[in-house]
Amino acid sequence: xxxxxxxxxxxxxxxxxxxxxxxxxxxxxxxxxxxxxxxxxxxxxxxxxxxxxxxxxxxxxxxxxx
Length: 66
Prior knowledge:
The chain has 66 residues and is mostly beta strands. The protein has strands spanning 14-19, 28-36, 48-51, 56-64. A four-stranded antiparallel beta barrel has the order 1-2-3-4. β1 and β2 (28-36) form a beta hairpin. The mean pLDDT is 94.
């Protein structure tokens, strides 16, 4: 699943995100969602989230649920 729909993302999901500085390279970071930072119901580049380790980026792929 991709991460463009806010309704598909919730705290506790394991996701792959791309950090702001890695947007050109597309390097992905895997982590667990702590907070959802995007308020709109969808975003073409991915919903912005904060991971449990504090990193912030846009969701590119949802891996697994709780």
